[in-house]
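# nightly structure sweep
# worker-07 picked up a monomer target from the shared queue
# config: single-sequence mode, recycle default, output format = structure tokens
# input follows
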Amino acid sequence: MRISQENRSSQRRSRRVSRQVECSACNLGRICLPGTLDENTMHELELNCVRKLQIARGTSLYRAGAQLKSLYAIRAGFMKCRVLHESGREQITGFYMMGDVLGLDAVGTGFHLCDAVALEDAELCEIGYSTLEQLCRDVPQLQCHVQRLLGMEIVHHHAALHMLTGKRAEERVAGFLLDVSRRLAERGYSPREFELRMKREEIGSYLGLQLETVSRILSMFHDMKCIDVRRKRIRLMDMQGLRGLAGLRGVRSARS
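# output follows
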């Protein structure tokens, strides 16, 4: 896929690079790197493999068809992955937050399958893939962790497929909110109150629903007092009730 000169120039203006990265001091390091790396290996990663990258909202990190050169660990901000159809319609394939690693879609073929776009100003660690491959050969713990990341990506896509297959619209939206809540909790953030960085239309694209349907269901959940909605700000008020709406098993009627 060709990228116009104007888009290339826009991307260069939107990116700022710094080599000052301290993986050992990052509070998200336990997610994107194994905690068993020794000091020398960590220093080699920081010195030769990882660089900090800042991109502006709306900027493409990479595009479908581009050759795999790096993996990207999100330090701050939210990203979306999308496929653009010939008609220009955007299909969202996933949302990613701090601690997630982007670029794994290209490991099998060597080419990216989708675009990765910043939903807001974001900061990432760019990990040179060729250097990472060499380090993986020398450091078994790192190789195991990369394999774990690939496995987690497969699980993520399997869970997304399960959420979409044979589910009613209410179940899809409830499941989506619970998934965002769980992932934020894993990163030490509040699982009950958060801001949705993506538009309602983008949520609908990901869930296979129309914009009007997503808005209607969120309003319905609000009226049921399962959630409190203030524009993009969401507060989960009845977790058990939301699990019931998502069609999950073992749901109690009491609020938690």
